[in-house]
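Researcher: Next entry in the queue.
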Amino acid sequence: MIELPDEIVVSILSRLTLREAVRTSVLSRQWRYVWTCIPVHSFDANDISRHCYRVPLGDNEYNSSQWGSVHKYNHTKWVSGVLAQHRGPNVDEFRVCYDLDKVSSSHIDRWIEFALSNRML
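Model: Structure for this entry, 121 residues:
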């Protein structure tokens, strides 16, 4: 198999959704962590929730207000985790779309610091 330069792989991955880009890490050793260098980060809770979180079933089923709290917490942790793994030289686009609350404020502060340190603002 021909190895592509990392810059080309990053360019390819930046055209995918983050979820799709992460999934390519199983293709080869070269691609394993390249997704951490993509310059576009777009987090939309409505798109992500369908793929990233399992709705508890049976006796542990949450009512809608409990699920909303669990969803926000999981989404916030997921965004922070992805940003902590970012290894690229900069970020060209950074977008987070979901209902925020005071509980998320410390995470939001870190996201703003991330954007500033990656020359976004």
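Model: Strands lie at 40-44, 93-97.
Researcher: Noted, moving on.
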